[in-house]
Amino acid sequence: QRSGSKSLSLAILHPRSIGVYNFTTIAGSTEHGDQSQVFMVYEHHLKRSAFCMVTGGFGGVDGRDFVCVLGLDGTLMFYEQETHILTRSLQNFLLPSPIVYIPHTDSFVILNSNWFLESYRYQILGEDNTEKPVPTWSYNLGESVNDMRYLGVTTTEAAIFILTDWNLYCFNETGVMKYCKRLQYTPLCCTIYSRGEPTVMSLIASDTNTLMVYEGTTLRWSAQLPNTPVAIDRGNFMGLAGCLILLTEEGDVTLCYMGTEPTMFVPPPLQESALSSSEVETKLHTLQHQIATYSQSAKNSLGAPVGRPDLKISLKVWPMLEGDSTCKLEVVIQAMTMIHSLHVNVCVTHPLVAVPNTHFVQNLGESIDLYSAVSLVASYTAPWELEANILAVYLRSDMTSGSAEASIVLPSPLVLELAPPAKESEASLYLSTPHPVILPTIFPEFGADSWNETGSNENVAGFKYKNFPDLTFTLSVNKGQQKYRIDSNSVSAITLPLNILSRKMENKSLKTAQHTFALNELLDATDNNIELRNQIRALQEKIKVGTAQMRAVQRRMLSKMRDKTPSDLTALSELITYTNDHVMQLSHDIETAQKDLRENCTRLGNLVKMTVLLIKMTGSVNAEDLKQFSEALSHTEFISESQGWAEASEAGLNYMLRTTLARSMREQYMPPFSEESVVTNSNNLKKYIAVTIDRMVKSIRREDRAVSPILEGEEDGHLKEGFHSPRPTLYEDFDTEVKKLLSQSSIAETVMSDVD
């Protein structure tokens, strides 16, 4: 407050300043109600970072409050309204702790770095600064303090309450402990109040969102809190006395009310007569029937809302202006019922990123608007999907979980921009359709000026990727031959236009015969993926050796330094320097390899998606086989030390070749892929990919063939020798099939050497 003013003011402590504000209310003359305004009266800039503050009539002043600010370094800064009057530094101070002011003794109580409670009188702190202040009293507490409170029990007696990790202490103003309450939980914060002499009530919040109410050392009541508070206090609002004010780490303020007082009457236990065995058996059968009936009826409703959904997700993409590199995504979530702990994830494929990609809402009863910005990061791989997937996970009021999802397609200008059509290309893909559509209809987001400036028109258009301008593709349409042609300087750059065409012309029956168009690139990316994972594992082993050597050299140096006879440590010092440089270089190499692996996973997802689309466009593939293939050869990123993309894909393709795509009963006995094995060689995986694609396109399924259930070699009563050896004869059959396949396709140069 200002000098000479007795009106109440609001003091707010900032990290490097403290401001005093006046709060005024203007009566409203309309239905909008009263208006409140806050304006600054004065401000003090602090020379040190502040931790907390206390107010009071320091020095025995009545009717006026002064401010004491505790800095992070243990410095006390005193202010009398607009004037800074004193700065004192405390001794034995390392980490800040709560501080309280005791008006009865005009002193401050604080915890030092030795975990001693110390009390300093204001008069002593205001004396000569050249001498260290001496505490009036001290107490060896022996543990850190979470919260510290002061309460005037009577007009002549005060109490200091200290909350630690394990106990609640009560001291009088002279440092004598009155009692100590051992807590069987982890406390977070507390507040103290009096219900009249000599009753003292303590409210303690725990890490399990539980509020404990103590009268002295006796637990009187407990209640569940709606969130996890870091500070708690009591206040009166709108004539309602005793409201609890909770503050969370996120800055949310919640007002709660405890309700009525519990009754102390405990009803006596009921005197039930013992049941006979026949009655117990009858009751047991009845309960079992009810459980079975409920379980059967709950199967269809488990994890799904009954009647109407719990929430509705609406998505909107804000229009992008010319030159924008970011797309704003709006997620509107409308709750039909009260939901809690709502997590909303925004998922996009690399190199697209969403910021923020996760939203959290504690409680939702109506609707809320969430926003994320989607942008393109630098990468040498082309994006292959423009779809953003939204997944919402939440809890209902009965504490059962629920989920909802939605998706939306992002605009093409986020990743593409028009460019002059290329005259030369390294890869060309042909698509046929009975109803071709002109190109501006497929890419309506680009304006007419951009089409004219780049020389693109309704029949031919050139594009380049914003994150890697060297990647380009040209899309042309031939209405006479009813064909689309995609030319590019890279196979992976064709996936996105192929995906856009497939989505925009879903009912136009796109066809192609180039189902092996991306197979060369896919097998090359498979080799690269396994090589990178082998490289990372080798680097990790080298780091283990290097760190072990570092520890051994350090132990040797310590042993030499402890010897009474001095010796030359130059060699050990040079060895430590060399080992440290070696380990740091290995760490940088691992970081680089992991970044390359991330880019490789994006490239793999790109090529797998293209391969699945091309196989689907052949029109001769069984839908169930294509679904299993897309799940087995997943385009999801697998970045793990134990299981990567190669392990997951080889296991899935191995299963398909042993079941639905088996040519004979004999192939069903092919050794399954071990879950614990790590793929270090790409030969088998590349064979699996090539053979699986060939059999799907040729519609070779086990149920379509008349196969004898007797294995070759079992007719004599025993299995063929070596059938379950590390390399059974079945793999030789695979080699023959792959050689035959490769001799008829364009991928022979890539895989033939591995087969031989």
Spatial extent as radius of gyration: 37 Å
- Treating each run of at least 4 consecutive H or I residues as one helix, how many helices? 12
How many β-strand runs? 35
Going across the biggest sheet, name each strand in turn: 31-33-34-35-32
* Shape category: extended
User: Which bin fits the share of residues in helices?
Assistant: 25-40%
Q: What structural category arises from helix and sheet content?
A: alpha+beta
Q: Stretches where pLDDT falls below 50 for ≥5 residues? A: 299-307, 701-731, 744-756
Overall domain count: 4
Instruction: Output mean pLDDT.
Output: 81
Describe this structure as you would to a colleague:
With 756 residues, the chain is α+β, with helices and mostly antiparallel strands. It is 26% helix and 32% strand. The chain folds into 4 domains: 10-226, YVTN repeat-like/Quinoprotein amine dehydrogenase (Methylamine Dehydrogenase, Chain H, 7 Propeller); 311-412, Gamma-adaptin ear (GAE) domain (Immunoglobulin-like, Sandwich); 415-504, Double Stranded RNA Binding Domain; 519-755, no CATH class. The strands form 9 sheets. It has a 5-stranded antiparallel sheet, with no helix packed on it. Strands 4-5-6-7 form a 4-stranded antiparallel sheet, with no helix packed on it. Strand 13 (158-164) and strand 14 (167-172) form a beta hairpin. Helix 6 (519-562) packs antiparallel against helix 7, helix 7 packs antiparallel against helix 8 (623-632) and helix 10 packs across helix 11 (729-742).
